[in-house]
Amino acid sequence: MSTHKLRRVFVWELPVRIYHWVNALAIVVLCVTGYFIGKPPAMMFGGEAHERYLFGWIRFIHFVSAYIFLFNFVFRIYWGFVGNKYADWKNFIPTNRRYFKEMWHVLKIDILLMKGKEHLSVGHNALAGFTYFMMFLMFLVQIITGFGLYAAMSQSWIAGMFAWAPYLFGGDIILRQVHHITMWLFILFAIIHVYLVFYHDYVEGRGEVSSMAGGWKFIEEEVFEDTHHEKTSA
Prior knowledge:
By secondary structure, the chain is mainly alpha-helical. The chain has helices at residues 14-38, 49-52, 54-82, 97-112, 126-150, 157-160, 165-169, 172-204, 211-214, 221-233; strands at residues 6-10, 216-220.
């Protein structure tokens, strides 16, 4: 029976963890309220509409969540330049051949369920990092299309910055369709993301799930030394 010496490594800083959970909550609220805005429910009330104001509250919550989502996203971009090496922006953008090789290796593990060939990265593995980069691009699409739709009905200077979006996309109808389709891509990503987090936690047993709450992971001593050497020599 073989044993492995584990090292407790602090990976996710508090700002990264706060960003993650604020972002997750904002996306859930935006998707739920956005669905009702796109497909309003048929409800019968006995009183006047202004006494209920249900749809007004749905729209208000959606707009507030959109601002939180925007500022949270801007903060994450900033932290990609000032955070630790695990939060660095270079973890998300392919910069060399080794990055693509690691992506392919992780894909074989996640899709083909290869056993005994786990990829023990400390922070994000290459596939996860690239996936988050694509999500960042979708975040940008949602911000542009969402605030572009909001600009016509808002006096906010932030919304006004995106007043050009309807002209770029060819009108509000197409803008709304892109916004709606991207919402479903968020939902698809969330399902896959949650599955893979629990899958890697089960396969690797290094605290993948709990790390986004406390920030710590457990890494084999030799893996940590090899990864630390690669980071410092890069």
